[in-house]
Amino acid sequence: MSNVNISKLKGIVGDANVIDSLSEMAKYLKGQGKPVVVVLPGNTSEVSSIVKLANEQNVKLAVGGAVVNTQGITGGIAMVMSRMNQILEMDHLNLVAVVEPGVLHKEFLLKVAEAGLNFPPEPYEVETSSVGGCFAIGDSDSKSFEYGPTRTFLLGFEMVLPTGEILDIGNKCIKNVSGLDFIHFAVGSQGTFGIFTKLLVKLLPAPEAKKAVIGTFASMHKANATFNNLIKRNVLPTRMNLINASLAKNAKPGTEGQLVIIDLQGFKESGKNIANEVAAVLTLGGGSDVKIIEDEVEYDQVINGWLKVRAYLNAKPEQTVEFAVGPMKMPQALAQLEALTGDLGAYPGVIVEGLLGFVGLALPEGTDKLALARKVNKLAMSLGGNVKGLLGHKLKAEVYNDAEMWKQTTSLLSELRQQFDPKGILNPGVSLEA
Amino acid sequence: MLSQTVVKRLKEIVGEKNVVTDKVGLLTYGYDGTLLSGEALGVVSPQTTEQVVEIVKLMNEHNIKLVPRGAGTNESGGTIPSEESVVISFTKMTKIHEIDTENFVAVVEPGVINFDLQVELEKKKFYFPPDPSSFKASTIGGNVGECSGGPKCFKYGVTRDYILGLEVVLPNGKVIQTGGRNFQSEPGYDLTRIIVGAEGTLGLVTKVFVRIIPIPRAKKTMLAIYDKVEDASQTVADIVAAGIIPTTLELMDNLLINTTEDFTHAGIPRDAGAVLIIEVDGYPEDMDGQVKTIGDIAKTIAKEFKVAQSAVEVDQIWTSRRSAFGSVARVRPSYGVNDITVPRSNFPKAIGGVLKVAKDFDVTIGVVAHAGDGNLHPLILFDQRNKEETETVHAAEQALCMMALDLEGTISGEHGIGLVKKKYLDKEFTPAAMEAFRKIKRSFDPTNRFNPGKVIDL
Ligand SMILES: Cc1cc2nc3c(=O)[nH]c(=O)nc-3n(C[C@H](O)[C@H](O)[C@H](O)COP(=O)(O)OP(=O)(O)OC[C@H]3O[C@@H](n4cnc5c(N)ncnc54)[C@H](O)[C@@H]3O)c2cc1C
Ligand SMILES: Cc1cc2nc3c(=O)[nH]c(=O)nc-3n(C[C@H](O)[C@H](O)[C@H](O)COP(=O)(O)OP(=O)(O)OC[C@H]3O[C@@H](n4cnc5c(N)ncnc54)[C@H](O)[C@@H]3O)c2cc1C
Fold first, then answer.
1. Contacts from B10-14 at CB under 8 Å and sequence distance 24+?
2. Which of B90, B223, B385, B443 is deepest in the core (most CB within 10 A)?
């Protein structure tokens, strides 16, 4: 029996926004856990009341943009933010927007574009991601070299803490060092410090011009060599990405070989010259079908192709390994990687974000992820990098043979979490132990 | 007073000459960029992370607190030994471990002077964008401690945006590494971000992984002169509306125009209400278009607009701005630097607010501002020897902070909280936010050992 008091929940958000029939709940849930109820709050005070209720009754609660990960909340509450989906303000003078967390990322982008502005962060799941989820994950993406990672675009927020209190922080100033920087610390905390209920987001003017240059290559190594060439020439585009042959077809139907996508966002004049320079470098480097894309529709198709491939990789986190090395170390990284994976072109999936030195691997069925990650991490560390995120930290500490450092780091993480969520109510499925 | 045992141990750890305990020697470490002072029990200057660890452990054994210090140029009392404590000075950790331009990263010790890093980077046509006006003296560790800004933030952001990772000695003497050499390295929580700007209250930074980028291929510097400050802020708003992000939009008001003219004789009309220094950078072929757009915008209201035609002219324009703080010292013996920020759209109101404070308290205030960021540095001129006047100045400073908050801004854009602004912190933040800061402090430093009394009390 669960402790969840469904009638109290109904009292908070109204009957229509409490769902407890299994069949209806399914579309809001993913994973193996079995929450007893899905609740859809409509405003901050409802979120707060629900979280307070969860604390009183000591039940677990997990939050999601449109779909909630149910891990760890069997018998508990799944909170879906999709009803809080308003763009509250678009402030041109200050280049900021105030949005509710349930706004879909792609809808937000439309509104931002209509206003002649730019919101660079790009979550993996562009189709389904919410703005709240985007900041809760708070990652970098292939445009981060130019624009900075996701956190760069958060100036403040309203949050319901794991104890139910409402915390408001930040302002429309792009420079602000008052207090401790909880604003940026909260980015990437995956809902463990609290639930975003409003976000104060920084925007940029839209670039004057966008162009892409694409080309195909017989091998990953050849394609990647052109990236090193561009960096040496001090040509630093907005994106400089590479997709191996197995996945390239998904990005651009009919592609034979590895696909290079160079994205150039900036000014018209320089854009023309750089596009020509890039096209020349790709062609000289052995690229075929090298093409400069100026047409808006075709440009969007190319970029969406990239996003689709990235989303595909992300859909199976248990079958992906991600790492980064110094961008100019990528030739060695790919060469050494091939010793582990066999022909990179034929591997189920390899993507490279050249400016960030990032590689994402989609593993063949049945691969022992951890074993591979361990090897990949050694390789990456020898080239100034690491496997991504928490797992990477753990593996790094292993390599240093520094169990102490890993212990210290995780105990600090769990102390922080505990300070904010003494009862361990919120998002118990999120692990900070790797 | 430190006991002989402690002094002896400290000397064993860092070497005889790196421990200061004599009164005269301690004096310099009792001051920073503010008018406050304090007295340290001792000063210790480690040269390695291992020594830092040893020092922290020793201090813990004897229950002595530590105040981290770089060059001590901060404007918030952040390095003042306000409680019984030992100053740990990082000025002997000055190694640049590595500059890797190919991979856009440099690894430095915290005591490296910002300028010294820039000089090394410049040889390779690279730079580290955060360059507070104090960059010739201030250290990277101090820049990290304050999350310093500078004149380029509008386009390039602040220190936070260029720190990829840190090595940190925690209050319990344990060492952790946050982040790494790329954007993909944070372990669950973004620990780097909470250390940056924490003013030494959470951990001692012993190594910094900074992001470096190539020097832009081209740059154009412009100067616009206005009758009124409001006109200058109109230009700022119009430039932003035109979709241009200049690197710099520096403003000085009439008072500063006059004090800097006394120094530089740059030929700026003394009756002008404001000057705006505007700089754009990027690819050479984009410069003309942006300069034209900006010129068209500025000329609609500026008295005068000119584009620097040579490096010498660029230097002339900047000399005035660079001498701003120093120039006011001629007028009165002391000045207090304030640091408030408002949303860009409230910038004209903030200028009005400064004038009102000057009038209400009958004090002289000049304004230097990073106008694109809405970040104002009102300089209050006075004589510190006059006690009564000094008190009036403090009241005026408080009024400036409250004005910024009324205009939906912040009490600190880049100088930090330290001791100076701690008392206003709860005016800016709600109790829940204040408590969140405490939760963070408690997680790192439950017994309040590092930089006690700064930013927030436990
Ligand atoms: C295991 C896993 C790892 C992932 N890693 C990455 C990654 O590294 N980089 C990346 O770009 N994308 C990653 N994603 C994809 C990511 O889920 C989507 O790309 C998107 O950014 C998240 O938006 P969403 O609305 O779908 O969030 P959801 O999938 O609903 O939530 C994602 C996380 O954010 C939390 N969250 C959601 N809304 C809020 C809110 N309002 N307040 C507080 N917390 C909230 C959730 O509790 C959850 O921890 C990952 C997905 C999974 C399943
Ligand atoms: C003339 C002048 C102009 C200035 N211009 C600007 C400007 O344009 N922009 C701007 O932002 N600031 C400016 N400042 C303020 C100041 O220079 C900056 O805050 C600078 O970054 C401080 O560096 P520092 O080495 O002097 O640090 P310190 O003053 O020694 O220390 C600053 C803070 O960091 C902590 N700290 C220092 N080293 C470490 C470490 N290794 N580990 C942990 N904590 C540490 C200290 O405890 C303290 O809280 C100016 C100051 C002056 C005097």
1. B10/B42, B10/B44, B10/B55, B10/B58, B13/B44, B13/B46, B13/B51, B13/B54, B13/B55, B13/B58, B14/B44, B14/B45, B14/B46, B14/B47, B14/B51, B14/B55
2. B90
**Cα A124 to ligand 1 centroid, rounded to whole Å:** 9
- Asked if residue A416 lies in contact with residue B189, where contact means CB atoms within 8 angstroms, the answer is yes
How far away, in angstroms, is A246 Cα from ligand 1 center?
27
**Residue A117: which of B245, B289, B372, B243 has the closest Cα?**
B243
Ligand 2 atom nearest to CA at B33: 53
B140 alpha carbon to ligand 2 midpoint, in Å?
8
CB contact under 8 A, A140 and B183: yes
Beta bridge pairs of residue B335: B381
> Is the four-CA dihedral B119, B121, B127, B128 of positive or negative sign?
negative
- B151-175: per-residue pLDDT in tens? 899 999 999 999 999 999 999 999 9
Binding-site residues, ligand 1, Cβ < 6 A: A 62-65, 67, 81, 101, 123-125, 128-130, 132-134, 136-137, 139, 190-191, 195-196, 314, 317, 427, 430
Is A178's CB within 8 Å of B241's CB? no
A206–B243 CB contact, under 8 Å: yes
Contact B185 A205 (CB under 8 A): no
Parallel, antiparallel or unpaired: strands A87-91 and B163-169: unpaired
**CB-CB contact of B379 with B325 (8 Å):** yes
- Among partner residues A172, A386, A419, which is closest to B180 by beta-carbon distance? A386
- Starting from the edge strand earliest in sequence, which strands make up the sheet with A239-243, in order? A288-293, A209-217, A258-266, A239-243, A349-353, A358-362, A320-324, A386-387
The rounded Å distance from CA B156 to ligand 2 centre is 19
**Of A266, A404, A419, which has the smallest distance from its Cβ to B443's Cβ?**
A419
Q: Do B184 and A180 touch (CB under 8 A)?
A: no
- HSE (side-chain half, CA atoms, 13 Å) at A131: 33
Classify domain B4-89 by CATH architecture. 2-Layer Sandwich (3.30)
10 Å CB burial of residue B22 (0-12, 13-18, 19+) is: exposed
Report domain extents, chain B: 4-89, 96-214, 218-326
Q: Is there a contact between B364 and B311 (Cβ–Cβ < 8 Å)?
A: no
B96, B76 in Cβ contact below 8 A?
no
Query: Does B185 score more than 90 pLDDT?
Result: no
Chain-chain contact of B285 with A270 (C-beta, under 8 angstroms): yes
CATH code for the domain defined by B96-214: 3.30.465.10
What value does the mean pLDDT take over residues A227-239?
97
Spell out the domains of chain A, with CATH numbers in brackets.
Answer: 6-80 (3.30.43.10), 87-205 (3.30.465.10), 209-387 (3.40.462.40)
What are the start-end ranges of the H helices in B248-299?
A: 254-264, 284-299
B385-426 residue pLDDT tens: 999 999 999 999 999 999 999 999 999 999 999 999 999 999
Q: How far is the CA of A137 from the centre of ligand 1 (A)?
A: 5
- Partners of residue A176 in chain B, C-beta under 8 Å: 341, 410, 412-413
In sequence order, what are the residues at sequence separation of 6 or more whose Cβ sits closer than 8 angstroms to the Cβ of residue B156?
Answer: B129, B130, B247
DSSP codes of every residue in B199-213: TTSS-EEEEEEEE-E
Ligand 1 atom with the smallest distance to the CA of A311 is: 19
3 state SS of B184: coil
Question: How do residues B294-352 score in pLDDT, each as one tens digit?
Answer: 999 999 999 999 999 999 999 989 988 888 888 888 889 999 999 999 999 999 999 99
- For B:325-354, CB contacts with A below 8 A are 341-345
Nearest by CB: A185 against B154, B157, B190: B190
Residue for token pair 């023309």: A272
**CB-CB neighbours of A308 under 10 Å:** 15
